[in-house]
Give the backbone structure.
Amino acid sequence: MEEQLKALKNKGFALTSNIANKVFQQEIERFTLVLGGHIFFQTLSAAVRFDLFTLLSKSGSLTRQQIAAKLGIKEKPLRILLLGLVTIKLLRKKKNVYSNSLLADIYLNHENPKNVISIIEWQHHINYKPMHSFYDAIKANTNVGLNEFKGDEPTLYERLVHYPELEKIFQDAMEHISVQANADFSEHVDLSHVKHLVDVGGGNGANIITIARQYPKLRATVFDSPTVCDIARKNIKAQGFADRLTAAAGNCFTDAFPAGADCILFCHFFTIWSEEKDLALLKKCFNALPSGGSVIIFNQMQSDMEDGPLFAAMGSPYFLTLATGEGMLYTWNEYESWMKQAGFHIKKQKLPRDHGVIIGVKP
């Protein structure tokens, strides 16, 4: 204990022995969660695949025997699963009865519109095995984890074409991220002056459909790969926006942007690519836009101190190891610097959930 107290004091903590012990125990618990991260995630993923949280949300609470009967599994393996879920506080246990935590009822219940189940499915089916290669990706400075997927294309997004089921899982997760973030985007970003918006890497159309609902005169185009554009067109038609929304297939680095745009949106897109490519895209936007036109970067941001937040630390290894081998979550200062180099005047705004918007206006 004396060594623990001394170490904490050396870090600047002026603490009593009891408080020092509590702080140290908290550090041990955090380290245990990291050390067992692979196990705790698979515990969560298994429960989601059994749809256990939805079952408990409907039932209120159940015994282990009742859960085993309803899920059709043996009690001993279920006991192991429940032990993990209670320990990481996703379930509550009172005597012999189990129930959801508040977090599980909101985010892990299929019937709650705020659930993040598509994100968990994406992590489990697409990201988990490739992240085993993080060390090798660091050494090679490229996305070594992509070897988990067949093909010779250089990015995950291109190789998913060979896996229609995985591509759907990926697009479902991206739609969830977009839906959650778009509410903040629409609330804080004024697009009333925009006539034609191009959403680069716009995926299944969720972004422009949300925007179109708020701005009934705005036209918008998804600019993405051919298979993704097919999905976007179906969604646009299903939502009744085919008269003013569309999708155009192309490569944003080699093909011209769809004509007539006065606003170009990059939503969760610049994190994918290198600094050089991001700067090149902004210069391309500057040349394509009319005077007064704008480019918008909408993203989760890394702090300028490069010390967080958690989502920046969690997301960046994915871009290196799997997605492209180039990107990461960049800082506010980096985006601002690239905007200025491209010639734009800059506005910026912090948003909830570690998101931010940087708007560049062409003089």
